[in-house]
Amino acid sequence: MTTSVASAARHVRPTAQDDVLHQDEVGHRVTKHGLEVVQYIKGLYDSGAKIWTKEMFQNIEAELANDIKPSSVMVRSMNGLQRRRGVPAEGIDDKDPDMGFMHHYIMFKIYQEILYEAEEEELEIADGKDIDWEDSHNTIAPTSLELALISKKTLTIDFAELEAAWNESQHNWTLSSAYSELVAVLRKATFPPTTNKIVCFGLGSLEGSQDYPTLQDMAKCDGLPRRAAITQHAAALTIAEVLGQQLQRDPLPIYAQDPAYSPTATRILEEKGINVVGGCGSLAFTLVDDDTVVFSCHPNIAVKQIVADIARPVAMLWNRVTPEEEENSRWTVEIVNGEKIFISPWLTDQDSPRTRALVEGYEGIPFPEEQERFGDLVMYIRQD
Fold it and tell me: Could you tell me which residue ranges the SRR1-like domain spans (predicted)?
């Protein structure tokens, strides 16, 4: 689900006191040089420079596929320049059962986060070395992604048990009012004949995690097992089937990406007709184009901002795009286990000027009221 970003201590360029224009309660400093970089990035953004491109995802995914433990990867900046950057290697131990499978995963920086870090003149590091100010200003400051290590220790559930939960949840979905309303919306809408696939992002683990298994959670709205992730995948199958009927062909192919998929869940999804996309977190974006239907539900990555840069899809079923006046920019501080944690005001799937501009050419139809399993979704259908 979508979360706020918690920031630990960061490596920041030493700054002369007379260069600091403002410092807030969470220790964020706005510097003179930082404001210069902010204006530089905003200028790039306003000129139409892309934060993300499909080519950058293709390149980094190919590089990581060729080397599972790389010392560095090539990263593209917002101005089109590229530079090799070191990647974390600590903690990779495939033989440690307590850690699970450790692997690299691409983390995305939203536009707001890029600007926020630039204000503070945060020092970037490439190949293990500090980058001097001019170099950082010109090449690295607008970088929109980084590599992180994640542990993939999945919940072990018997295939038959998970399949039974899937079948029950899919049956319950087809009997729900949300299902009927979604089908009605899709049948009333007009989709171009070139519509050719559905790409899903972050629909979630089917069985939950070891710390929080979800198969037996009950929904308050109907007293049935909640199983939000399973229901969302069932909804994707419904969209594929109805659009196939509308376009007088077989159900559209479905591609889904989520690092939380277990081997058991992957097997079930593949058997049900959902193609699981591998890679390190950005590969599914390379599939998105103007003939795609995008489906995401409270993802923990910047789906809306990335899609706005790379395509103008046929339709998007995702979280409501909020107006700028609803955006909060105030960080907060929380004490967790005696440690001060800075909590970002932005969601990982935060809107931006480009996401708002994107949906101006779409009709927005609210998804049926089903907060517990879907949240605040809107179906945006392109009007041309």
Answer: 192-327
